[in-house]
Each structure stands twice: as C-alpha cells, then as structure tokens.
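Recall the central idea of this unit: under ordinary conditions, the amino acid sequence of a chain determines the structure it adopts. In this exercise we apply that idea directly, starting from the sequence alone.
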Amino acid sequence: FLMVGHGKADDVIDWATQGRPFIAALNASNVGFTAEQRYGWDHNWMSFNFSLDSMFSPANGGLSAWAYPSNVSFPGISNATGSGPLVPGLTGTDFYNMAFEWSVPWNQFHTNIVDTTTTYEISLRSSTVAQTADVTPQRTQAFRPAIGTTVTWKNVNNATGAIVQSGTTTIDADGLATLRAISIGTGTGNRLSDPATDRDCTRVYSDRRDGNWPLSSQCSGTLCKRSLFSMVGGPRFPNHYGTGD
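Accordingly, the structure predicted from this sequence is:
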C-alpha cells in the first residue's frame, strides 16, 4: 500500500516529469494507494497529510503503530469520483482515495474481512460522501481463483441489506479481479457476495438468469467455490506483491 505526496513546485524531484504522471500510473495498476499533489509546495517536508491514519495508525491519530499486518488483505481503489484528476492541474491541491476505509479489527465499523480458499468478503465505506470507484482486492491470503475464472458478485448496502449492484468479472492475467464503478456508501458502507465459479456448482434454482442465486447451493464434486465480496468494492484474488506491500 503506497501513500505518496509531491509538491507541484518541486524541481529537485521534478513534479512535472515525475510526480504529475505518477498518479495515472498508480491508478492504472489498481494498487492500494493514497496521494496528495500540493499546490505551491517545493522540495520540502509535507508531514503526513496524505496518510490514511484510520487504517495504519492507532485510533488516537498517533503514528506509534504505523503498520499494516502482512496477513490482512486490502483494497486497491482507482477512478474514485471523490479523488482529483488523473493528470493533476498546475494549480490547486489534489487528494486521492483519502476518504476510504475498510472494516478490520482495529477499525471495525462492520464485519471484518473474510478470506478463505472459497470466500472473500470485505466491507468498504467512504468517510465523506458516497462515491463510485473501481475496486481490486490486493494481497488476498487464501482466496485465489485461477486465471480466467469468471466470478459473479453483488454489492449489498450494509445498512439496508439491499442489493445495489451485481455482475461478473474475470480473473486477469495477473490473477486479479477488478470490479468497475462500484457504489461505495457512507456509514457502514457496502459488502459484496456471490459464487466465484458457476461451472463447478449446481445451484438451487439454477435456471435463474438474473444473477440473484440463493446463498445455499448444491455442488457436484469438491471444486465448488463460493466467493463473497462484502464491501462496496470488489474482489480480487491472487495478489500483487509490489513494493509498498
């Protein structure tokens, strides 16, 4: 997970050629990141304005912990409607992904992450206003469907239990699954759930075509997988172990 800041007036590590294009590169890679591009700031200390304190430091806002457990996954968020432009402007200060949180034991606003060989769930929220974003779960510990697997998902409003979105996605060549334009609410946020693969399961009401299969299923053999993505975001599976994890 990367947290980066750059002053737009910096000509030592040149912002125009280094910091400015970096945002689009981070966004395209679907990694977990937050960022600030600060207007009128040169090559100087920026403090921790671009850090996601609620996820990486104690509840009191101190930096004594400043760590994230290596055995816990996290979401990569891109194209968020509440973030700045992918090509930051020459004026104004831009922030990226600063309002997103996900439920974990040290920041528990809903059910914690579930990450098993057959299931992945995560609850995600915005601390400001409702947003949409692409979500790619990163560094999953056990839930890693094969490349090319078709995954079905649904996005559930945690406050009402209503299904607000559903669809399918395919595990890409990097072993990742990205859910596009996911609605992410405030409060207790959203959660996604549904079967990971249809080909290995014979479902109750298998003749339904609307994607709203029941959570119970009858599986043939031992290959039946169920993937629950509970969050306002989407699942991802094998993981990207890039620098910054």
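The chain has two helices and 15 strands.
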